[in-house]
Design brief:
The complex is a heterodimer of chains A (113) and B (112). By secondary structure, chain A is mostly beta strands. In chain A, 0% of the residues lie in helices and 58% in strands. Chain A is globular. The relative contact order of chain A is 0.34. Chain B has 112 residues and is mainly β. In chain B, strands 2, 4, 5, 6, 9, 10 and 11 form a 7-stranded mixed beta sheet that branches. A 4-stranded antiparallel beta sheet of chain B has the order 1-3-8-7, with no helix packed on it. In chain B, strand 9 and strand 10 form a beta hairpin. The chains are: A mainly beta (113), B mainly beta (112). Chains A and B meet through strand 4, strand 5, strand 9 and strand 10 of A and strand 5, strand 9 and strand 10 of B.
Amino acid sequence: KQEVTQIPAALSVPEGENLVLNCSFTDSAIYNLQWFRQDPGKGLTSLLLIQSSQREQTSGRLNASLDKSSGRSTLYIAASQPGDSATYLCAARGNFGNEKLTFGTGTRLTIIP
Amino acid sequence: ETGVTQSPTHLIKTRGQQVTLRCSSQSGHNTVSWYQQALGQGPQFIFQYYREEENGRGNFPPRFSGLQFPNYSSELNVNALELDDSALYLCASSWDRDTEQYFGPGTRLTVT
C-alpha cells in the first residue's frame, strides 16, 4: 500500500527566499508524481507532473525533482512571493491497473512580506 | 480554470440523510475520479469511473456510490450520512484512466 509523507506540515519563510518542499513515498513503482497547490477551502491546482521516467520538471519559478530509488520528490520555489502562500500537496500515481492518486497531507507554506 | 465544475458549492445535511453531489467534466474526458478531503488532510480516493463503469474503488463503504453519464457529468451519492462524512469532496476528470487529472473546486459538505 502506497503511503505519501510530507514534512514539515507547516513552513514560514521571508519573502524573496528560495525554499524546498519535501515529499516521500513508500512504493517506488509509481506511474508519475504530481505537485498541487491548494488555497484555503478551494480545489487543487496542478503545478507540475513528473513521469516515472523523468528526473525533473520546471515551470517558471518552480522546479520539481523525482528520485524513485530513494522514494523522494522535492518542489523548489525560487524567489518566493506572498502570493505563493498556500498548502502544497504531492500525489503519487500507481502503475497501470491502480491509477488512483495517493496524496500526502500537505505542507502549509506562509511567505512573510 | 480547469473546466471542471461542481455543484453545489456548500451544503449542510443531517445525520442519516442522503446527499447527491454533481460534477461536470471537461468535454471529451472519459474518466472521473472522486476524492474526500477531511480538514487538514490530503484527499482520499473514493472511486473512479471510466466510460460509465466503476474502475477502481478506495477504502469507502458501499453507501458511497457513483454514476457517470454520457454527457461528461457524474454524481457522487452518499446514503445514511455520518458526522465523519463532513469534508470537501473533489472530483477530477481526465482523458483516460492514467492521464493527468484536472480537479474541480469541490463541494463542502457539513453533516450535523
